[in-house]
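Weekly modeling sync, notes
Attendees: S.R. (lead), two postdocs, one rotation student

Agenda item 3: backlog of single-chain predictions. S.R. asked that every request posted to the team notebook include the full sequence so nobody has to chase files. The rotation student volunteered to paste the first one in as an example of the format we agreed on. Action items at the bottom.

Example entry:
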Amino acid sequence: MELVVFVLASAMVLAGAFGVVLMSNPVHAALSLVLTLFGVAVHFVAMEAHFLAAVQVIVYAGAIVVLFLFVIMLLGVDRTDDLRTEPFPIQRPLAIVVGVGTIGLVGAAILRARDTVKRQTPLESSGDSNIRLLAHNLFQDHVFAFELTSVLLIVAVAGTVVMTRKTVNQATPTAVGDDA
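Predicted structure, as returned to the notebook:
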């Protein structure tokens, strides 16, 4: 079972990495990067590094959303696609298959985790000392640097929005005979 998970997660990582490099559309490249990051998170789960997997998904998926917004704002992607036209006819059936497969995998993981939790002794379940140390380090020892980083990120986003706004020229010429 571990070999199957490893092979599938590695295929996700490689397919996403090739998609990032080969896609000409920046939105598709960003979505391929999301696939790569989810594949790495699956590897973390397989190695029983659940905290790293959660951080991988939360931090990097959040960063991909910010990247997505920066691409739209900086490159001016204002072309809209016609949603009635299917570029890939197999896309919807494949999405249904992937969705059902994902639900099945999540259900199997829940069942397996439930059995594992029942078998643990109280001494084994108190292994969150690393998380407590990390929280103490971030939110007590380095709280100023942590908050300063969040302020800098907000300033960067606001600055990008201000820089990408198109100014309206006040002295626009009007057509002859227009009174409005």
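Discussion: group reviewed the output briefly. Residues 12 and 111 are 24 Å apart (CA to CA).
Action items: rotation student to repeat for the remaining queue; S.R. to check formatting next week.
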